[in-house]
């Protein structure tokens, strides 16, 4: 049985339907590049405008507080300046202003400069409560031997292991490994005369003691013998 032949009316209707839909499909495919650029620019402007204006000192202080609350180690002034896109001098002035404000208002925390950076610390008055809360009586303290060894290195650095042992009168190999493992001391080259490894304290050592530099150490060094007068063991 032969298929029916479409009439001229049906052909015209089919052709008309096709012509009617074609402009819509073409319009859907065409994208105005100018419109796309405008949209992208608008999104970028929205992201930029979402950052707060740091023109005022109060806004800058708040931004610095937000950053310093999340740092693991003291943050340097240049890093903070780069992050906030501000001059280093203005960042330094803001940090000093904040530090003075926390000290004068007797808050529970202090903003201190330690080494080359700044960080929040618990005010010494409330340190016992913080320790009790965090450690619950299970503090891992350094042994007396470790503290004595650390003191010798701090006041006579850079110094070799054998000279530290000579000052203390005992073997310090295990203690040295412990102090290195805790990040309190590190290797600082070799002694040109003996070839022994030299040790010195780290930034973490200063941070743990709340010192800006080794010059802030108490005057204990005169009680220790000069390392040059000690023979290597």
From TrEMBL:
Residues 15-32 have a biased composition (Basic and acidic residues). The keyword Cell cycle applies. The keyword Phosphoprotein does not apply. Keywords: Cell cycle, Cell division, Chromosome partition, Cytoplasm. InterPro entries: ScpB_csome_segregation, WH-like_DNA-bd_sf, WH_DNA-bd_sf. Residues 1-55 are annotated as: Disordered. GO terms for biological process: cell division; chromosome separation. It comes from the Bacteria. PANTHER family: SEGREGATION AND CONDENSATION PROTEIN B. This is Segregation and condensation protein B.
């Amino acid at each position: 049985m032969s298929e029916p032949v479409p009439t001229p009316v049906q052909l015209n209707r089919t052709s008309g339907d096709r012509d009617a839909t074609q402009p819509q499909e073409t319009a859907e495919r065409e994208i105005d590049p100018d419109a796309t650029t405008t949209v992208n620019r608008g999104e970028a402007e929205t992201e930029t405008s979402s950052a707060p204006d740091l023109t005022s000192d109060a806004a800058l202080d708040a931004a610095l507080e937000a950053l310093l609350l999340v740092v693991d180690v003291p943050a340097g002034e240049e890093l903070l300046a780069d992050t906030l896109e501000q001059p280093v001098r203005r960042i330094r002035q803001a940090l000093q202003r904040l530090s003075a404000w926390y000290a004068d208002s007797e808050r529970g925390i202090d903003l201190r400069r330690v080494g080359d950076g700044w960080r929040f610390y618990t005010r010494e008055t409330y340190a016992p409560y913080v320790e009790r809360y965090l450690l619950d009586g299970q503090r891992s303290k350094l042994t007396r031997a470790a503290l004595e060894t650390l003191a010798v290195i701090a006041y006579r650095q850079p110094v070799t292991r054998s000279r530290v042992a000579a000052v203390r009168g005992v073997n310090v190999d295990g203690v040295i490994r412990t102090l290195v493992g805790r990040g309190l001391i590190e290797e600082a080259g070799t002694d040109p005369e003996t070839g022994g490894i030299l040790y010195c304290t780290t930034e973490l050592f200063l941070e743990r003691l709340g010192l800006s530099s080794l010059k802030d150490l108490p005057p204990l060094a005169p009680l220790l013998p000069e390392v040059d007068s000690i023979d290597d063991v």
